[in-house]
Amino acid sequence: MAEFQSKSLGLLLLLGALSACSEYSYVQETNRDVFEQVRRNTVDILVVVDNSCSMVDEQAKLGANFSNFIAAFDGVDVDWQIGAVTTDMADENQSGRLLGGGDEVILVDASERTLDRVAWTRDWAISPGVALQLDPSVRTTTGNDARTAWCLATQSFGDGDKGTPGSPNDSCSGTAAPPDTGDTGASDGGDGGDGTDSDARAPQVNELLITELLINPAAVDDSLGEWVELLNLSSDTLSLEGCGLRDSGRNSYTFPEGTTIGPGARLVVGRSADRGTNGGAAVDLAAEGAMTLANAELFLTSSSENAADQFAELVAVGAGGVGIEMGLEGARAALSEPLVSTANAGFLRDNANLAVIFISDENDFSPDPVDDYLRFFMDLKGDPAYRYPGIVTLSAVVGKDVPAYDGQPSCESTAGSASYGIRYVDLASRTGGVLESICDDDFAPISAELGLLASGLELEFVLSEPANEETLVVKLYAEQSEDSYIRDLEKEVEYSYVPARNAIRFEPNQVPPSETIIVAEYEVLGSGARRDESTTTDGAAR
Predict the structure, then answer these.
(1) Are strands 353-359 and 40-49 parallel, antiparallel or unpaired?
(2) For residue 403, what is the DSSP state?
(3) pLDDT under 50: residue ranges of the chain
(4) Model pLDDT, residue 37
(5) Cis before residue 165, ω within 30 degrees of 0?
(6) Which residues of 436-449 are buried (b: 16+ CB within 10 A; e: fewer)?
(7) Which of 98, 298, 313, 380 is positioned for an S-S bond with 83, CB 3.0–4.6 A?
(8) Helix (H) or strand (E) segment spanning residue 386
(9) Residue 237, exposed/middle/buried by CB under 10 A (0-12, 13-18, 19+)?
């Protein structure tokens, strides 16, 4: 089986009369360049998200397009990790700390007033397939804030996960729950058959309590098996019309018209109400994609389940951050001691490439010069980062266009305007990163381009000799052998030639798959007639 070799072929044409004493030969060189698409990439991806008050829509767009980001990894052996931090360096609970591993459920009334809130962190030791249960002795909305008020469920239900959806919880001290009546007392329309719904009233604080959460089901996928249980502590039937479940990010589920919960009754809201597919949970109301619960993962990896939902939660960092955005400082803190060995331990790997992505509608206000931050990021990977492009890339989705004059926004969209992010633009330009506009309405192409860069797949291949574009032929092979030919690639459809860089370039949706072989054959520019002193017309050497 013949393997490929890059080679140059000379075609010799004799010029001049046979009787001439000297002659010229015309040499037309044909070159063959052989490239192999990347075999494997290991990459740590840090997403730095602006969490100031103007960024909610952009966070939602970024989260909704994770599928486009991760699609770039299809067919590529990429060992990836994705973590997120914010631009807020004033809040000590952020300040470079990875945001994974925590979430919250906020129960609100029809006027968005908080009725109850439960927030968990990575320290709550959430176990796959095991619900968190509130101790039955806790009867206030402040009491269920404490980690010590919660324990892991011990009773199995449905397909094997543990919890008691719709039924009383066991005591955290080990005492069994009282027998269940088998009736949740909940209704999502009409009078529930008991004639009491017409008397239902709106709930008040300390009347509805979040009592159980299955955050990370094991029997089925998170998108089907997550659920939240509510308990009516009052002696009245409560109307949940207009009430809802929220979090500090993108979750927003509103109870359907006519939903009520009887006195002392429980109501379970889940991702799916189909007991045949949701793990066997007795779910009263299906919230589907309007409610997702983040697992205890500090950062996502290539083996994370339900990564799309988890990523959307990860980057929905809220809008409560300070208005002095310090994205560069936040990224540096995340990748520096002490955090890199404590709160963020395990994220930064010695053998991995590093991709940092900044998402902001403001410029960066970090204290040090841009050169200092660039040097820091490059030095994390040592000398190879300076020699080989792609080991460290810094990308930015910001206001990227210089405004017409000072005080004008860089760009505007339906979500608002963005200032010129000159410091982010500078870093992205100097590391070959992606630079796109935060004002774009459609984040799908941006997400795909960012994912492609992180995947390590090559978009551009520089030819070894100046090419005569008209003679350029590009072929695709499955492996390093002539027998593995797949097809000729169509110019201007599957690839283009870039004269300024003497390179062939592929668009993101046309990139050759991992480990394929790209062969470019072409005539070399600049070859032509030259005097040949070594050969006479009769072939004798001079």
Answers:
(1) parallel
(2) P
(3) 9-22, 180-185, 189-196, 529-542
(4) 82
(5) no
(6) bbbbeeebeebbbb
(7) 98
(8) helix 383-387
(9) buried
